[in-house]
Amino acid sequence: MLPLIKEIKDVIKWRELLWQMVGREVKARYKQSILGYFWVILNPLAQMLVMSFAFSIILRIPTNAASNIPYSIFLFVALLPWNLFATSLSSAASSLVNSSSLITKVYFPRTILVLSTIIAKIIDFLFASTILIVYMFAYHIPISLNILWIFPIFFIQQIFTLGLSLFFAAANLIYRDIQYLLNMIILLWLYASPVFYPVDLVPEKFKIIYQLNPMAVIINAYRQTILGSGAPNYTSLAIALVLSLVVLLLGLSYFKSREKIFADNI
């Protein structure tokens, strides 16, 4: 835990640089684009419409426990956090490679490069979430105080994402094949998580696998609190928190152990 505490202190010390990098990341993404930031909303909306047609009309996947919920909303509640996870991981893995000139010339905590990428994706996520809010009002989805659970759930998700991002960012700088491997992992992981289907459909003998998949637990927790108006499964969420903290400590440890040779691998 001591390396983590030290790293947090360093990031706080260099917070102005962090926010500058976040601003640069957000502004550069849609520079010279006609639609600009509207792409942040358009991309997930198009995904949701196409997937809703494919999985609810053609494949007719039920929402089971949330059978009174339109499939588009059922899907979108999971798709938004999944897209945040996938895009954060993919972009963060390339963050060191894309900032090679800074690494070789200026000293600052290298974790800021990874963290700034993730924060920029969170900003995109917040904009895209407006679609879900509009849909929930349009379909008169009831909201209870249990929706406040989304904050600790979101926090656990970001701990897990940061841990993996630190590992893949450092590994990708040293072994460039990692970015291709990561794309395959993310695709397989998508189908191994209950994004398109309810966790109720998973056979009982495979439930333990889902318990050990933090993203499966997190996605199901979002659905339980937002659509089910109930509290998440405390045991599953606790396991996800512990696994996420372990991943963060291991990811940070690997990142720091390779930090001294970053410049040599540019």
- Helical content class: over 70%
Q: Which assembly state applies to the chains in this document? A: single chain
Number of domains: 1
What fraction strand? under 5%
Return residue spans where pLDDT drops below 50 for at least 5 consecutive residues.
none
The shape is globular
Order of helices and strands: HHHHHHHHHHHH
Number of helices: 12
Number of strands: 0
* Helix-and-strand structural type: mainly alpha
Report the radius of gyration as a whole number of Å.
Answer: 19 Å
Main pleated sheet: none
What is the first-to-last residue Cα distance?
A: 29 Å
Mean pLDDT comes to 87
Describe the fold and architecture.
With 266 residues, this protein is an all-alpha fold. It has one domain (2-265). The protein contains twelve helices and no strands. α4 (71-93) packs antiparallel against α7, α4 packs antiparallel against α9 (178-191) and α8 runs antiparallel to α11. It is globular, with a radius of gyration of 19 Å. It comes from Candidatus Shapirobacteria bacterium GW2011_GWE1_38_10. It is a multi-pass membrane protein. GO terms for molecular function: ABC-type transporter activity.
Name its key features.
266 residues, mainly alpha, 72% helix, globular, transmembrane, Transport permease protein
